[in-house]
Amino acid sequence: MPGAGDARRGPAQLFFDLAGAPRHGDADFLISPANRAAHEMISRWPDWPDSALLLVGPPGSGKTHLGAIFARRHDALLVSPTDIPEPGALCGACALLDGLEAVTDETALFHLMNFIRESGGSLLISSRRPPSALKIALPDLLSRLRRAPVVEIGAPDDSLIRAVLEKLFRDRQLAVEATLVDYVALRLERSLDAARAFVRMLDEEALSRGRPVTRALAGELLQLIDASRGA
Amino acid sequence: MSDNNDDQSNSSELSIENRQKWERVRGRLRAELGEAVYNSWFARLELESLKDGAALLTVPTKFLKSWIQSHYADRIRTRLCAEFSSLDHVVIDVRSPTRRARPRDAEIASGAAVEKTSPAPAAAIVERLEPQAAKAPMRAVARADGESFGGSPLDRRLSFSTFLVGPSNQLAYAAACRVADARPGEHPLFNPLYTHAAVGLGKTHLLQAVARSANDNKRRVLYLTAEKFMSGFVSALTQHSSIAFKEKLRNIDVLIIDDVQFLQGKSIQQEFCHTLNSLIDAGKQVVVAADRPPSDLETLDERVLSRFKGGLCVDIGPLDEELRMKILEARIAAAQEAQPSFHVPPAVVTYIAKTIVTNGRDLEGAVNRLLAHSTLNGAPLCVETAENAIRDLVRSAEPKRVKIDDIQKLVASHYNISRADILSSRRTANVVRPRQIAMYLSKVLTLRSLPEIGRRFGGRDHTTVLHAVRKVEDLASKDKSLSEVIELLKRMLAE
Predict the structure, then answer these.
(1) Cα separations (Å) of B221 from B28, B191, B255?
(2) What is the pLDDT of residue B482?
């Protein structure tokens, strides 16, 4: 077909990323051995050992999702790690700080933790790493963070990776065969971030090439990822 | 909705028509806010009475009251007014178990009305937390009033009776008791009393104990955290209410400020210095705490420092093991009140007292971790599980990321072969099994994909890795000694 080759060499088809925000509903959260303890502890609120609870896990392990579930269930106040409010502006209650590693003003967090404890509230803090491994300069803050119990979200197991891949495909309205999910799960790095990035890439690639999502396309992309990693 | 008798007897005082209206209000709230929010906050909200245009709503805890008032007051009022046309006043209050003891009308008059913010009572300088109901899931919450120079709330658990004394804090404890026990009007013996200690050794506990005890002793106490001092106190001082505030200060007998190392800024320090001088000159007691001795407070004004040095300066040193044991036992007993099934064997208490040597707050952190662990697992604690639960408190670094190289080296040395053997294409039995075990460990302990692992094992195909993983899983499920070797290797790699 004349012209078809030229068209393929031209800029790839533009597309709109309509997948939107990831779904953070209760029913969307997939419980596995890696995150069961964290999920249970969060569901037990307000029956917590301390006024603060630390949720520690690698990027993409579902901390934000669990935090969103917590915040919605209890109407928690969302505290931005880069803009921690004056404690006076709050009412003692439950609050969520997503991303301890991104906190810029340690003194503000120290005062906030004191205030929440004094007023009988609760604070859920998520962090990529345990507080002792973060470079926290303010000893008063570190000491209060260490008092809080930690629930860890571990690296996902294979069955969770499969379930997450399925969910991610579904979120993008992509109907894929179970064999494709198995095929990808075996060959992908065992992290939720990798799964998320891969599904996005696969979807975008299929859209811009005007091809359906197939095992062949997935295999091609996996080889690309593998090659760039091996290099 | 409500199934306890208390609530039923209560609603029976309302007419059937009013009860139906109230159910409609609840239905609307449930529909508007969703099941989860409704169940968290409104499930135990009851309409207690309707009288003279006022609706009295009650909840079982002070915390619920404060939360509903600050977040949902307008919504509730709108919904109620839509159903009850004659309503002009909505009051939310805490249900006491012996509700009948108090006359209802007085309760309405004294309850905090939703519409108006209640003016802060001038006499209440020390804000106290009400004793919490024994089974209440959360501690009572302090009144979040608009008063800019009210004191910081006191935690009822921080009293002299709960302060545990050992050689390291004996002197600070004795000085604090002496200050707290002074009679009203008595000239202060040590002024100011300056306590310093590293974090988590009990400064705040001691200061709050002084505040509580001096207050019980009929002296007027103002207890402030540094943050409260800076945000509220100083703004009142420098803005509109300065004169009113100074008037108020004159009526204080004891001023207590925590964490003075956080006091920053020239104007704040000036005001602080001024306050300090005028109080001390007037014979009022001043108690402060910091995380360092006065000479190390670089940011503080020279005059403030000399004032500090003029009083008594005591420090709290690191806790010895006996004191750590006492603190742990007290913490565990407190946790058991909330969760009677929580049991910590003596061996675990001793292990923690020996391991966590830093400070009291870390000991509290250790008990919190044990509590979380036993809540989630339900299994009895032993030294091994305790070790696991407090791991992050003991180790400063994160658990090590296991590398494929390390796995290959360790497995090779365990089976007395070389790493080159593992990477080679040799297929003799003494090499094949260790190679498969190393592949299995790489799959389980790292996040690497199968193709990546294959490449790191001498460029093998990912199906070879998959075969090895399944083979080892299968063998380990049948062969106890092999599964023990694998557990041992895993533990060694995690070290």
Answers:
(1) 46, 15, 6
(2) 92
Q: Where are the alpha helices (DSSP H) in A47-120?
A: 63-74, 106-118
Phi, psi of B225 (to 5 degrees): -80, 160
CATH number of B160-316: 3.40.50.300
Mean pLDDT of chain B: 79
Average pLDDT rounded to a whole number, residues A162-186? 88
The arrangement of strands across the sheet holding B221-225 comes to B221-225, B254-258, B285-290, B193-197, B312-316
Query: Using CB atoms, which residue from B36, B153, B361 is nearest to A146?
Result: B361
Q: B185: phi > 0 → left, psi -120 to 50 → alpha, else beta; which?
A: left
Query: What ranges do the domains of chain B cover?
Result: 2-118, 160-316, 321-390, 404-494
The amino acid at B136: A
Which pLDDT does position A13 carry in this prediction? 53
Domains of chain A: 13-20+156-230 (1.10.8), 33-152 (3.40.50.300)
The fraction of chain B above a pLDDT of 70, given in percent, is: 80
CATH topology of domain B2-118: GMP Synthetase; Chain A, domain 3 (3.30.300)
Buried b / exposed e over B471-493, threshold 16 CB at 10 Å, is: bbeebbeeeeeeeebbeebeeeb
Cis peptide preceding B192, ω within 30 of 0: yes
Please answer whether residues B129 and B156 qualify as being in contact, where contact means their C-beta atoms are separated by less than 8 angstroms.
Answer: yes
Residue of B nearest to A94 (CA): B67
A59: nearest Cα among A165, A196, A171, A204: A196
- HEC profile of B388-420: HHCHHHHCCCCCCCCCHHHHHHHHHHHCCCCHH
Interchain CB contact of A138 with B (< 8 Å): no
Q: Which CATH number fits domain B404-494: 3.40.30.10, 1.10.1750.10, 3.30.70.2970, 1.10.8.640?
A: 1.10.1750.10
Residue B28 pLDDT? 86
Q: Which residues pair with B256 in a beta bridge?
A: B223, B287
Chain A positions in Cβ-Cβ contact with residue B361 (cut-off 8 Å): 143-144, 146-147
The whole-angstrom distance between B359's CA and the closest CA on chain A is: 9
Burial (CB < 10 A; 0-12, 13-18, 19+), residue B273, is middle
The rounded radius of gyration (Å) of the Cα atoms in chain B is: 32
User: What is the per-residue pLDDT for B286?
Assistant: 93
Asked whether the ipTM of the predicted complex exceeds the cut of 0.85, the reply is: no
Judged by average pLDDT, the poorest of A111-125, B10-24, B474-488 is B10-24
pTM: 0.65
Higher pLDDT, A197 or B134: A197
**Are A74 and B37 inside 8 Å of each other by CB?**
yes
Q: For residue A78, give both structure tokens.
A: 């969302």
The identity of residue B224, as a single letter, is L
The Cα–Cα gap between B316 and B359 comes to 11
- Give whole-number Cα distances, B196 to B50, B181, B199, B314, in Å: 55, 21, 9, 6
Q: How far is A50 from chain B (nearest CA, A)?
A: 7
Nearest beta carbon to residue B368 from set A107, A147, A226 = A147
B295 touches chain A (CB under 8 A): no
Let me know how long chain B is.
Answer: 495
Backbone angles phi, psi at A4, to 5 degrees: -65, -40
A59 touching B, CB under 8 A? no
